[in-house]
Specification:
The protein is an all-alpha fold and 110 residues long. The N and C termini lie close together (12 Å).
């Protein structure tokens, strides 16, 4: 991706990480320009939010504060890593699951 593409898509890439609603806003706002950088981060954010919600239910079953705090810290670090990549204009994939998110959600835009 060239620098112009990254700069044009940076705002919506950051918005994609702000709640699940942010993913929808970024997706629909990016339909006109179809920025590849933004679509990359939309796919990463969508995957991260879905895993966050799914594992949240599993972690919620355990009534243990150490498991809950560990889970929150882990996902906070993942979100910080992803958002910092979007702010810096880099296409950093989420560790371990980033490639899977790109494959699963490739129909969202290229």
């Amino acid at each position: 991706m060239d620098q112009n593409t990254v700069e044009e898509g940076k705002t919506y890439a950051i918005v994609a990480y702000i709640t699940m609603i942010g993913v929808l806003i970024a997706y629909f706002m990016n339909q006109e320009k179809r920025n590849k950088f933004t679509f990359f981060h939309i796919r990463q954010a969508l995957g991260l939010w879905l895993v966050f919600i799914a594992l949240g239910y599993i972690v919620g079953v355990f009534d243990n504060w150490t498991i809950t705090y560990s889970w929150w810290i882990f996902f906070s670090l993942l979100f910080l890593y992803a958002v910092s990549g979007a702010v810096a204009g880099k296409a950093n994939k989420i560790p371990i699951l980033g490639d899977l998110f790109q494959k699963l959600f490739k129909s969202l835009g290229e």
